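We treat protein structure as text, and this decision shapes the records that our systems exchange. The tokens are whole numbers drawn from a learned vocabulary of local backbone shapes. Below, we set out a record of this kind in full and without editing:
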Amino acid sequence: MNVPLGTLLKPVFPLSADAFPEMAAERFGAQEDMDKTWRLFEPVARTLVDSFYLTLDHPRHQDLIPRLNALPPELRGIGYEGAGMGLMLLDSLFPYRNRLAAFVHGPGAPYRCLVHIGAGLVLPRVPLGTERFLARQDPFLRWLVMDGYGFYEGFFSWRDTVERHRTPRGIRGYAARSFDQGIGRSLWFSTGANVERIIGTIRAFPAPRQGDLWSGIGLACAYAAGVMDRATVATLLDAAGHHRADIAAGCAVASIFREQSGQPAPHTDLACEVIWGQTATSVAALAHAAGRALGATGHAGHTDPAGQTDDTPAYERWRQRIKTAWTRTTAAAPAPREVGA
């Protein structure tokens, strides 16, 4: 009798959605608001885990895609993220099959951003060199792999990554910044999307890292399960102070994720309206325009008109243009008040 691969791997790669709220509670103690929030997060966590094991059992596209597409529309992108996890693990166990690349350039293309994040969620657990793996990925999207890596470490290695502010050895340069964006996204879940816990946790980090953490919060706020009302999102934006543009950049990336998957969400519109004063569709259009503005310089290491070489990755230059667009859009807005200052 053939035993499904997912069943065989569960003892060595255990992952359970039921454990997520328990781990979150360990950090802050039992909290009534966190219990309530995690009931809203539960479908997201369960879909991610189930899709991961589903992919291990059914990695062939003709078997996998119908199962992923059968998920509720609002969870389908999370299912593809779980597929990225499963395909990444399979590629590490059975090299040279390149299942992940075939998926990203094939039926998984509409969800390519989330598939890359899913691959990053598994990267800390497989015997692959981070730099070597990143070098094989798309130069623009590879940083989303590091975002996934940061999310994993931020959620599952809380003490070292969040309390002690440690970054895994070998992660440096822009990879470390993308890693921090993933940590920020993980805080949305590990704090139960509680504003006070989010603000306190980010402000305990060294100042140079806080902008990328806020960017991760902006992405999670606009993409993940809607648990905040308009006033609460505004409080988060206010708390970010001079990092408000970073929250805006994360929010814009989330609008792209939603657009690519073809699944609009009311909470994405809500976040975009509060942060940008525009709908998610309009924010996505601005983000696309920022990408087109990179033009022929959209690769890393381009030469500017003054003849100087700029080694800033294209992904970050795209984010910088998004932040500039937000600054121009909100130039007439009142100066933010630092919450708790």
